Amino acid sequence: MRNIMNVAILGAGSIARSMSRTLRGMKAAGRPVELYAIASRSAEKAEAFAREQGVLRAYGSYEEMLSDPAVDLVYIATPHSHHAEQMKMCIHHGKPVLCEKAFTPNLHQAEEVLALAHEKGVYVAEAIWPRYMPSRQIINDLLSEGAIGEPRMLYANLCYAIEHKERIVRPELAGGALLDLGVYVLNFASMVFGDDIVRINSTVELFDTGVDRTETITIKYRSGRMAQLMASAAFNSDRRCVVYGTKGYLTVDNVNNPGWIEIYDKDDRVHPIRHIDVPKQLTGYEYEVEACLRDLRAGQLEPAEMPHEQTKTILHQMDALRAIWHIKFPFEEKAPFTDMAFSDG
Prior knowledge:
Blueprint: E1 5-10, H1 14-28, E2 33-39, H2 43-53, E3 57-59, H3 62-66, E4 73-76, H4 83-92, E5 97-100, H5 107-120, E6 124-127, H6 134-144, E7 151-159, H7 166-169, H8 177-193, E8 197-206, E9 212-221, E10 226-232, E11 241-245, E12 248-252, E13 260-265, E14 274-277, H9 286-298, H10 308-325
Parallel strand pairs: 1-2, 1-4, 2-3, 4-5, 5-6, 7-10
Antiparallel strand pairs: 7-11, 8-9, 9-10, 11-12, 12-13, 13-14
């Protein structure tokens, strides 16, 4: 790879602006990254985005941008429904990919994409930012050192009043709260308790369009631990997480972008015995970009923070939830399946 990683953004929506701000900030801080290109299905939109965000090149088609030999990494910032097709396009052009969550709408599409990436030897990563943040290691270390004793139960929620957004309510865009918000609480549970699941129960409220609006999810693990999760596109929540242990509990202020972590003793629910501020960040996206920079220089094909098998595991869980809810997207030939052992082991 060249000395500076030229990043191209596929899709010119709001999340693309967040990545643009990230790349500009990283470059200003001396990191070897460049906000190199933007591609949209409209040349006018791409050019307007480039002027607004300071992007070097604008392309009115994805194919045109992917044909540019100077592109080192493509960040995909489009609705879930388009991810698989666009990642395959990148892979066929030999372009490494950082794709926004949810990686694909279902496990089958992810398996196709990752098989192609493996065959072609092209790097692919899922941009699920809490997996890359320093907060993950801080939480892991606290639990490993026994700060709350033996962890037994966790709770996490992520709810935003975003039901006015087209991508949330339209089934053809793989809409619903699960793929946009629920993916975060599932990842938090996975990072803390792992994935040896014996049962998932869930209750859902649907939009009139048939996709999920609000859901509660209860997970039982083979160890006997349990997780209670909530996601919704209908209202705002506090976004907190709590991990309960035999000697106390740990709280996180924001499941998808932690700012601080506190430890409470089991006998004092008012005063934390420890408060840990998460390191100050640029936007939070810089950690996944740094992972790509590290991996491409080392010749890796997947990030250690979110290996391909982990991406598939979370998608398997989301397929299972949609199977419970009887939600099938219009572009899916078959309804989501569940072959996970969701019964007491």
